User: What shape does this take?
Amino acid sequence: KLIRKWIHTHQTQRIDIPSTIRQSLSTGGELLRLKRKQRDQIMPRIYVLVDVSKSMEAHAPFFLRISRAFSQVLNARVFVFHTRISEITQLLNRNSGRVQEKINAVTFGFGGGTKIATNMETFLKVHVGRALGSRDLVYVLSDGYDTDPPEETERAIKAVRQRGAKLFWLHPNKEVPSSQAMQRSRHLISGFMAVNTLQSLDNLVNLN
Assistant: This one.
């Protein structure tokens, strides 16, 4: 993500005129070498929330594999949720064949109901606090079904957006989730994308 700060580099055509002139003072005003600059970049902090409720039972293992890649490659923090939310980042970063068993143990109740609003509020208040900001990305991997009141889900998603973070919804079916919670919250979500194969992830870079 580009930021306002500039850095000097030889790999761009943009000339930093003030720095070039200051540098020329040491050679009597002759411009022997041009100083160049480009916008600095910063990696966004990435948070991944994976729905492991009953309705996601068939898709959760695939989404957890995707989340492991996010964690290991992009240093994302990964959470799973159903009726409650738990962070599994450390488990995903371990090279162990028993990762799924450990995740199941941490998230006792796998396959239960879904409380998106409740877990989103816990995510904000307990897990990230004031750390969530405008440079951050939040990915929710879920079919959008929720047992919390739709207006509470809308309020919880709005709270994430008010921190300045973008929130993207990755869903397992081709159709955009149409639950009441999603219908009320759709205007707050930065983008939707169907993810059901590895090839479908190619579109992730264009999601905005």
Remarks:
- The radius of gyration is 22 Å.
- DSSP finds seven helices and eight strands in the chain.
